[in-house]
Hints:
alpha/beta, Rossmann fold, six-stranded parallel β-sheet, 13 strands, 44% helix, globular
Amino acid sequence: MTDKPKLLFLAHRIPYPPNKGEKLRAYHLIRGLAERYDIWLGAPVDEADDWRWRDALDGLCVETHMADGRGRSRHRSALSALARREPVSFAYFRHPSLMGWVARVTGEHRFDAALLYSSGTMPYLDAMIQSPDRLIVDFVDVDSQKWRVLGEAGGVMGRVYAREAKLMQRAERELAQRADASLLVTDAEAALFTQVTGHTENIHAIGNGVDIESWQDAAALPTPYPADDRRRVIFTGAMDYVPNVEAVSWFAGHVMPILRAEGRNIDFIIAGSKPTKAVTALGAQDDITVTGRVEDMRPYLAHADVAVAPLHLARGVQNKVLEAMAAGTPAVVTQGALDGIDHDGSVTLATTGAEFASAITTLLDDPTRARALGIKAQAVIAEKYSWAARIEALERVIAGDDPLSARNAA
């Protein structure tokens, strides 16, 4: 331990491996902050495959505690949440061993700051023996509004989602009142947060960055695709996440039929962990491949011809779009997938199935234009999306120095 300021970082999931949005952001925040802070990190591990990474962040932190939540049942969590009249998210992410660890370390140390990553970590405030000098909450997205949108579908699950939206909105309001600073990932999310919570002070938008160095040589990695004449159109993301499931299902139903009718020899690649039954079923079609979890997404993106993000339920910055840009793969996306991304014209916007099909075929038929867009996208990433700039902004917020406006911090 050094004489650096002490930071308690509590995440709702182990922030490793950095292979999807929520973990990627948390990992890079920790890695960047470790240069100036002594960090105590606590988080649950709820995915069996992630348990092997429980020691991965030890080298960045003074102490880590990874609570074993493998096999935790969302159904039992829902029953517990009903009994306690709290959000299901709280019941699911609250772990007795992590509550005990928080009590111990906050009893032993007076922390200069605590950073709660995600509103799902709010229950751990009750375990703190000594309050930190400053409390920072990285909400990332406005979770309550995600549940609200899902609740509009109606039915039994719609009622469950609507309940979660109501309770999470109440929690977001309370947490914002208790925090010295609230972080959101885009200006739009920050504005929505203000609207939803009625809280207007100390709200900052700090966007996601890209690990630029790791993408520089992505095209030199061996291709994961067979040596044939098919063109690859790729979607990346966690495939048990409802907005991603909706996106690939929509693309398969509204864009692929048009491309087939045009005689295009395309393989739609759905690359990401935990595909649902609905997503897996899409892979039964000859021109759709569902990979499941992949060890390294870089070659999948770098060797694809086009990346797509037909998201209609998007919240916050879409790392899949930033990573496609970093890989130099031309991307076709909906407006919702561009929230908070300054792409400077390097990404193609589409809305309808016909527009997606037209944009994809244009890129496939004009490789010079496709390559130019990819090069431009990489230049935008290098200029505007380094993690170093994000960490610098976050350090100012944690220290309480030179408070940033939501617009200037993004």
